[in-house]
Amino acid sequence: MYEYKDRVLELQNIISEKGIDYYVIPLSDYHNSEIPSDYYNVIRYVTGFSGSNATLVVAREEAFLWTDGRYFIQAEQELEGSTVKLMKQGLKGVPTIVEFLDSNMKEEDVLAFDGRLINVSTYKRYSETLLSDTNNRHIYDVDIVGELWPDREETKCQGIWILEDKYAGEKVKTKVEKIRSNDNFKKADAVIISDLCDVAWTLNLRGNDIKNVNVFYSYLLITKEKIILYVDKNSLDDKVLNYLGYENILVREYNQIYEDLSDKLFYNSNNIYKILIDEESTNTSIYSLIVENVEVLSARSIVSSIKCIKNDVEISNTRNAHIKDGVAVTKFMYYLYKTFSKRDNNSSDETEISLANKLHEFRLGQEGFLGESFDTISAWAEHGAIVHYEPTQKTDIAITEDSFLLVDSGGHYLEGTTDITRTFLIGKASSKMVRDYTLVLKSNISLAKAKFIKGTSGKSLDMLARNVLWQEGLDFLHGTGHGVGHILSVHEGPNNISIRSPYDIPIVSKMITTDEPGLYFEGEYGIRLENELLCIEDESNEYGDFLKFECLTLVPFDINCIDVSMLNEDERSYLNEYHAFVYDKISPYLDEEEAIWLKEVTREI
Amino acid sequence: MYEYKDRVLELQNIISEKGIDYYVIPLSDYHNSEIPSDYYNVIRYVTGFSGSNATLVVAREEAFLWTDGRYFIQAEQELEGSTVKLMKQGLKGVPTIVEFLDSNMKEEDVLAFDGRLINVSTYKRYSETLLSDTNNRHIYDVDIVGELWPDREETKCQGIWILEDKYAGEKVKTKVEKIRSNDNFKKADAVIISDLCDVAWTLNLRGNDIKNVNVFYSYLLITKEKIILYVDKNSLDDKVLNYLGYENILVREYNQIYEDLSDKLFYNSNNIYKILIDEESTNTSIYSLIVENVEVLSARSIVSSIKCIKNDVEISNTRNAHIKDGVAVTKFMYYLYKTFSKRDNNSSDETEISLANKLHEFRLGQEGFLGESFDTISAWAEHGAIVHYEPTQKTDIAITEDSFLLVDSGGHYLEGTTDITRTFLIGKASSKMVRDYTLVLKSNISLAKAKFIKGTSGKSLDMLARNVLWQEGLDFLHGTGHGVGHILSVHEGPNNISIRSPYDIPIVSKMITTDEPGLYFEGEYGIRLENELLCIEDESNEYGDFLKFECLTLVPFDINCIDVSMLNEDERSYLNEYHAFVYDKISPYLDEEEAIWLKEVTREI
Hints:
2 copies of one chain form a homodimer. By secondary structure, chain A is an alpha+beta fold. Chain A contains 21 helices and 28 strands. In chain A, the strands form 8 sheets. Chain A has a 6-stranded mixed sheet with strand order 4-3-2-1-5-6. Chain A is globular and about 70 Å long. Chain A starts with a helix and ends with a helix. The A-B interface holds A 449-453, 456, 459-464, 466-467, 470-471, 473-475, 477, 499, 504, 538-539, 541, 543-544, 546, 568-569 and B 449-453, 456, 459-464, 466-467, 470-471, 473-475, 477, 499, 504, 538-539, 541, 543-544, 546, 568-569.
């Protein structure tokens, strides 16, 4: 029985009363965070759908929910009996939300949403497409969820902690100076930083509001003279208060930013006539308030362009974090070996979840471990072919034999954040499995051993990884790499390695980017091999400045799945050097039995 | 003695009289052609400089000439004794023309040029940078060369000929239908086609106005009902006149377009309220006339987006043109072998120019040969390191021994146009020469054997060619490939293969693009290996539609310069298959002696 019908109906009643024709509810927070905290999950409250990507569009008589391929089956189940129509994003014939609205909204129709949940770039896309001189349509910023969800728990900041200098590597003062000396900042009088990772990085603070991300709900306003942090004041302990005082950071209540930005006096007293925003992370309500009072300048986040270039402390600490993470994952790999190589067929009780927990234990054993950097993907056999698979109690299956276990996981340590994928053979490999594994490895190595002229974009570099698979008529439908935050979101821009990227962002020295090609065969298995690559300087000569990669990740590839005859000389020597390096770095932290095994599985081939 | 001083002075007098402060003279025609006809070489008339790239900026007391690295030495010689200051484009500290004007023009200053010689995109860049609300500067469209150069010969169209259907492959009617059904055309009432190759292609006509390009000076105006060709009417013979009549093409005098576009009645009687232009090929005078009367829409050339996808007749004919060209170049290669392998040291009289002439003779021997598609680059030893080197009587040197002869050349045939570079070893190769040759070959093959998903741009594909050289800390400072016109300009857009391209143009089925990586060592030698690649369809599967290349060029690589141990298995089998294919296609047209030799130099390695 579908128990949410009343809530959808109530929503429809409210919008009718208010004269709204279409109301849009995205699964988002006020900062366009990749994963918002539970407080913001209005969609689950209204419809029962619990996936992590969704937008609900409510009309007076109908309602529509957009989600992506990961959640089609789940959404069908959770929406069963509902009047909410599922819109399968990306399938042929399924319109995008804007296309849908444009073809359904009549003249004079009113579209509304809570402007805090819609970022400026989406808002602009809506208004450019939907509004014309002649159609008299309207877009309003109204929060109607407040009325609908009376017992909604107030959101509270879950505590904030200081990342000491020895971990942050750069003082707040220097970071703010860098922001203020950015060309885009100079054209303005102030910048609003809405992205939670950007705020945390700038202030050398971390929080606990979003699982796996170490951020806290806040806004930061930096003027030429002041730094104002909008945050839940009750969450600040004395240590943090003193720290903020010492750093000359003014503190105001989280919601106060809306009042401040409505107030002409606030702008005048702070000499603000032009404010710089980032249209991706700034919400429409904030944007509207500023536009009413002063000039708005738009540019991509200044902080993200600074923080993607890691400082020397972050880099050397991250190397250490990868030793710790490498030890944990290597021990896990040995655990798999012990558990499955010696058992009688099918005799183990291990499942996807039990193994994810086991890996968690190994990470817990590392000093300075703060938690996973994202929910572990532990995917056995055919589950591995579902790119975003994450085992739940409902889907968990036992590990049997002769297939691949794909484990994509990562940790936050005080020294830095990791993200690694290894695909482990359990049992025996078919020749196709070996071929596929070797192709993914070749693709990984092809990018990892690149040497390239300064200015080369991640988009171009992706050719090196894809080309290996394309030659065989194969491909994978995700990016090859993403930037990695420092004890922040494991997905960080602007750097990425993706042929489909709309931007040509050069990969430059001191960026950390993942290298994670894969192959996925529905109903069979998935293979993904992911290392993190630090971009470093190579030779400079008359042709320009060359860059290359240092591999940070320290876990062996599965030597039993590699067809050596498919590797060329360069690939073979790259692999042998990598394995020797892994052994050197990891073996000191293993017990004798583990070390002997590691020597064996990192042997020259 | 510098004999042009008076002309520069006279120009300065004229601009002073007219109240002009800076007068810009580009080396261009009214269509922004890559190479204008001699009529337009005002710079040579005024300054004596004879290079193919130059812009002259004349101030009241000074004059400045911009040219690129190819011409620095030549310009210094030709401008010796002149008051014209040489501006070495691209060198550090040398401003661009716009930068120069912006920092030198005072308030109220007047910049002028003949608007017919400046395209719209350059004009817009000038006005955006130089004019502001406050500086009161002005830009005027004035031709003052008319007064200066009284005995300038009138330009005349040098004849027009019809490219028969069996060579053009598509009727004018169909081409015009395609243009009219283009989305950008539909937004307008007419399009002005200024690019000479675009006009020639659309009308299946060719001309003789620009050396090596087969175009004729003209404009084409296509409305929803009419096709109007503006051309020197005297140049049309009865056959062409009949043809134009049959195709319903109205003919008006070349210069009449300026009068028509000044005339409100002309627009009204043709129902033109919006005109589409391409800002690259349309000149500023035309643009200004239209802007005064109707709305202007801008979009990249519709014709170029159609003509870059070759039709089936063009493709199969081009294959035949490459057999002819392959026979000529292969015979030339055998001539080199005979001449230099058997001689006593240094006993031949051959020079760069004599060999270019020899190659011309071999092409002349092919049926349907119309002429070179560009001036042959025949560059011995250190001359090969000068990327745009073209031998002149002054620079010509004798071919001695133990170095490379780089020959970049091409022909127009009734069946199509070719562009090929081979680098021939004369004498013995050092191990560095063999290594460098093999690297360039690997780079060429890496692109040639690519298989890639539909949507992949030439910019991305360039990674495959560059990566091979970058791994060794080497590079070349030109694009890897350009589109090739069909009995038109050998350089044709929009397709190109270049990591430095500002555009992400996908390489799609039926495009022809060159693959020409190189290595250049100043004072030593240059190596470039160029084939033309036709993009064709490969498999389609769940990942998408794959594309690959068919190599059109049919001339062996120099087997004596290849270090087989540097080739991987794929490269070796690619090369062997290519050589076997070349032998199959070319040997039937050789004499016995040549065929025996070809068999030997295309043997498996």
